[in-house]
Structure formats: structure tokens, C-alpha cells
Hints:
Elements: H1 2-15, H2 17-27, E1 46-58, E2 81-94, E3 97-107, E4 116-127, E5 134-142, H3 147-150, H4 163-166, E6 173-181, H5 184-195, E7 207-212, E8 227-238, E9 241-255, E10 269-281, E11 286-301, E12 306-321, E13 326-338, E14 347-362, E15 365-378, E16 383-397
Antiparallel strand pairs: 1-2, 1-16, 2-3, 3-4, 4-5, 5-6, 6-7, 7-8, 8-9, 9-10, 10-11, 11-12, 12-13, 13-14, 14-15, 15-16
Amino acid sequence: MKCARAALFASLLLASPAAAVASEKAEHPAAAEPKKKEEHWFEKIKIRGYAQIRYNRLFASNNDYVNEQGDKSIGDNGGFFIRRGRIIIFGDVHEHVSIYLQPDVANSLSDSMMHAVALRDWYADIFIDKAKELRFRVGQSKVPYGFENMQSSQNRLPLDRSDPLNSSVSNERDLGVFMYWAPKHIRARFKELVDSGLKGSGDYGMLGWGIYNGQTANRKELNDNKHVVARVTYPFKFGKQFVEASVQGYAGKYVIERDPKYAVVGNDTFRDIRAAGTLVIYPQPLGFQVEYNVGIGPELDPVAKVIKERPLHGGYAMMMLKVGQFIPYVRVWNYEGGKKHEKNAPNYSVRDLEAGVEWLPWKNFELTAAFAYGNRTNPKTHTQETGSLLRLQAQFNY
Length: 398
């Protein structure tokens, strides 16, 4: 009798839906758990960017006071101007591979043609170790020379980079292979200095080294000589205060572009050598930043009309104060030497000052107002021009 009851109970149990599912899982173990969908590389890609809109004509005192390598809307007929329009596509496509693509849609093709698309960055980081402390950066990217050059324009306080450091590498970029190394905790510190709003330069390693074409971004290599660059930096932390010190240098040969309008004699290829030192005391709340570089490069003698190798030097010093949503700053700089990126490598003498304040009411929007005053060479007339103006910029972060 008991055996009959047990058989009846077992038959009812097996006939239930739950029992059927359990029986199915027992017969097909692979179907017990749904297979996890494999994430494709394109599902790991992220997009961000920023844009800067400027107006530089308020109280402008001299139309011949211009900045050819910086903001081209300074000077006569400079209305509202899109200084930068960046779209950044990036992501880790593999455990050892990260990609970064940044076009700029606010480039000027000529004095009358604006808003053309040009490549800024397109590179891959190849991580050698699982901790991602050592990596090789392959492609077009920033050359590790100068704190201000590597600092993103999205984070930098002054509206433009200073002449002495930025004259080293136009658009701060070139095509090559760079090696960066930093311990994991130092990489985290570089990230903190940017994320906290302290105006860090980003993670370019504690040690950096590279070999690159030398003619700068989006320009064809014009000789078989390659530039080499090296940099050492360390972000110290004394209690809560961050202080960063760096030394860097590069060497190579540069081919200048001649202006056919002027009968200038001299070689086309010149030595291009520089070394620089950097000290940054991050604004907590008072900050200080200074860089100075010396070197040798091509320079035009406008009287003799000959281009030759000449010494160059220059630097800047800046003070800033972080108070809530506001960061006022004052920066002064000087530069004596040629500008290799401009036609005929014109000689420059620059003494400039900029005082401004950045206001960041929300993380996606900021306003900057800056008063600029200085004396700088006009590269077309080779005359010294003194000027002043009030500059305004609205920046959108997305």
C-alpha cells in the first residue's frame, strides 16, 4: 500500500511544470543558465567634447596687435569666433588596447574660410602590463614637452598658450611613437588633479620618451631626420597640497616653409633643440605656475633677409586663486626668438600680460573674461605693436 502511494506521489511531482523544468535542466546542463552576451568593442566606446565661443573686439586698441599662432580673431575684423569645437571618441577596446580620436571642427583654412574639420588626435595606447603602468602611444598625439602644452584647452585658465612654450610644437601634436610610465598610484594622482578642478595637465606618465616626425600635426615629413623628446615629472603631495616639478627637452631638424613673396636666402633645414623646466603649485586655494625654456632654432633676420640658426629663450609665470566657482589669474610672459611654424621663421619679441577670471557655475558651462595687454612683433610688417583688449569666452562641456 505504501509503495503504491509513493509511486502516485512521484508521478504527480514529475507531471508539474516545475518538475518539467528541473528535469529539462538535468538533461541539458548547458541550458541551465543563459549564455552571457559578449560585449563588442564598439559597445565600449564613449563620446565627449567641448566648444569655445569667443569675442575679442571689446576695447581693442590696435588692429596690428595680433597673434598668428594663437587666436586668429585678435585684430581687425575679428567678430564672434569659434575657437575650438572638439568631439572626442575614446574607449578601452581590449584589456591592453585603448583608442582615442579627436577631430576639431573649428579650423581656419584661410583668412576668409572658417570651421573646417582637422585631425587633432588619433592614437592607440598599448598597455604592456595588466596594471597599465607602462604603455606605448602610437599615432598622432601631444608631444610631451611643457606642462601648458599638454594641458587641455578645456582645463587651462588663460585663453591661449604662451608664445615661449607653444612655439616649440604647433598644435602641440605630431605623429610618432611615445612611451609613458608611471606607478598606479601616481596615475591616480594625475587623474585627481584634473577631476578635482585643480587644472592638471593629464596623465603623460612620470617618465615620457618619444620619437616623432618633427614637422608637427597634419604635416608631411620633409626630411629623414626624426625628433626625439624626453620628460620627467613628479606630482608631489605635501598633506593636501599638490606640487609638480618637471624637466623636459627635445632635439631634431626642422624644415621651414618659405614665403615666395619675399626674396630670403638661407637653408631650409635647421637644428631644432630645446630644454625646459616647470614648477606648478596647484591652487589650494592659492596657486603658482612657471615654465621657462631655452634652445636653438631658425630665425629670420629682416634686415639682411637671411634665415639662420639663432638662440631663443622665454617663459611665463602665473598666479591663480581658487575661490568656489571662481578662479582669478594673472599671467606674464616673454619670448625672444624665431617662430619656425610661420613662413620664413620670423623673429619675435614678445612681452605680454593677461589678467582674467574663470567662472564655472555648472560643470557643463563656464565663462572667462580676460584683459590682455602687451607688446609683440607683427610677423608681416616686422614692427613692434603695443595693444590691449578685453576678451570673452563661453565654453560648453559635454
